[in-house]
Write a structure and sequence with these properties.
Blueprint (H helix, E strand, L loop, with lengths): L3 H18 L1 H9 L10 E5 L2 E4 H7 L6 H28 L4 H27 L6 H10 L10 E10 L5 H7 L5 H13 L3 E11 H5 L9 H4 L5 E5 L3 E11 L7 H34 L12
Antiparallel strand pairs: 1-2, 3-4, 3-6, 5-6
Length: 299
Amino acid sequence: MMNNRSGILCKGMVIQMLLMSLFLVSCKWRSSGMQYDYGKTPLVEVNGDVLYAEDLKQVLPIGYSKADSAVFAQRYIKNWVQDQLFYQNAIRNIPDTKDIDRLVENYRRSLFEHEYERRLIEQTFSSEITDQEIEAFYNENSSLFALDESLIKGLYLKVSNKAHDLAQIRSLYTKTDDESFEEIEKYSIRNSARCEFFYENWRTLAEIATLLPPMDVPLESLLLTGRSFEFKDEDYIYLLNVSEYVAKGDIEPLDNARGRIRGLLINSNEVSYMRKIKEDLYQAAKDKNRIIFHYKDKQ
């Protein structure tokens, strides 16, 4: 595989080869009086529509061999010509373009409105959401946060059953003080153990269950009787300490829902902001008699 520099050089060489092969045709075009984009080199023309070498250069894949690039370029040129011919033929065979013109205008209008809205929000809208707003929404809409799956916080360890000092890690993994965390990390490094601290972040119970060996009793059932577990298979010992647990159907903890609530509130505020802008425009136009109502019950 070529690097980017060699790929770019290859693209340039392919373009040069194509230009040489089309040089006479290109000269003929220029002598015909056709006006081309300044500084660009035409490759092919169909009834006034022109494909330039610079356009082709933009789409040539980096890393292709010279032969593959040449094949790609020829195929692209042919497809471009076919598309132009088909489009021009479609125009000739659809004389009534009112519906198409209407759709195009509606789409154009939609693009303008969307871009203007984006710029207004970017330049003048404040997306700041306070913790008080988030907590108020959470408390007032608790029914929206019923969990679809159980969540837990804790510590997960997977260590070889041949590792040294297994008694040490068994005595440490249920502790949650900083000194114990540091010792667990050191132990994990010494014994190439997989260690995941998630005391600060909620994880789904199903996700953690996939890290454990197959069990006869579901992990959810085990959590009804305890919080610290040791599992084994032929090669490894799995240690799990659960500090917090929220069952499926319960209300999602605020710290897990906070980011999603923030997004909901920002979106709601954006909608209200745009609604106010439109209402202000309406009232200003109405006050200046710029709106002509042709019915009695004007708003």
